[in-house]
Amino acid sequence: MEKRARFRSAWLPYALIAPQIIVSLLFFFWPAAQALYQSVLLQDAFGGSTQFVGMENFAALWHDDNYLQSFRTTAVFSVSVAVLGMSISLMLAAFADRIVRGSAIYRSFLIWPYAVSPVVVGVLWMFLLSPTLGLLTHALRAVGIEWNHTMNGTQAMLLIVIAATWKQISYNFLFFLAGLQAIPKSLIEAAAIDGAGPVRRFFTIAFPLLSPTTFFLLVINIVYAFFDTFGIIEATTSGGPGKDTEILVYKVFQDGFKGGDFGGSAAQSVILMTVVILLTVIQFRYVERKVQYA
């Protein structure tokens, strides 16, 4: 017989969800409303005077070549981080799931990077790939590869992709490992008895059953690449060289806090929020159809 919790007090359920509602109102809905309001205004750098300009801030963005370039940069960056991060994490989770002795030690080492802040991650990889002092730079130079991300836009993009992917691997690893451990071992053993090798067992049994986890991580990694990588970019390339690593969220910061264009940066944040919402809706609308929950 199904059991349900019943509250005798009429106000207790609302009191329990009140903290979450307050946090959402203060840190999401209120800033979003402020961004919508400021996006139709023209303000001076000190906020002393404002002028209603309607959709002019949005129209100006579509004629800004740097803003359109940041769209392309964000697309390349987010797809690279999501694909690389999920692929490497899935491979590590598959290997860790097969380890019998010392598995706790390996899993602990793989989880540690998630505790590191984005800024520290950026500084770490910036020193490892420093053009003059980096350990990895000297290793690359030994095999004939010259590395200087301060002058080469492709190498700068590769640097932030590596740093952002390394930061997110631990998060993806936890979910993939939990998903693999939830798969009934009897299915894997039955396939092994039928003669299926490890690779075939993984792609015909394990990976399809991981589709809910994979879909969840796809959404999370896209949002992560759009928003949570700001600290990494600020600590490594600051959007350079030129504008080669200036993704959308970093351009909002550059134009608003450094350039003093509050109306234009607010319009950019509204567009960025809309793009992320649309991407999430598209993923739930089309990608989720291929997810197997049973």
Automatic annotation (TrEMBL):
Q: Which UniProt keywords apply?
A: Cell inner membrane, Cell membrane, Membrane, Transmembrane, Transmembrane helix, Transport
GO CC field:
plasma membrane
Among InterPro entries, the record links this protein to:
MetI-like, MetI-like_sf, UgpAE/MalFG_permease
Query: One biological-process term from Gene Ontology?
Result: transmembrane transport
**Domain ABC transmembrane type-1, chain residue ranges per copy:** 71-283
Keyword Membrane assigned: yes
Task: Write down the membrane topology.
Answer: Multi-pass membrane protein
Record's subunit section: The complex is composed of two ATP-binding proteins (UgpC), two transmembrane proteins (UgpA and UgpE) and a solute-binding protein (UgpB).
Q: Which NCBIfam families match?
A: PRK10561.1
The protein in question is named: sn-glycerol-3-phosphate transport system permease protein UgpA
Record organism: Noviherbaspirillum pedocola
Its organism's taxonomic lineage begins at: Bacteria, Pseudomonadati, Pseudomonadota, Betaproteobacteria, Burkholderiales
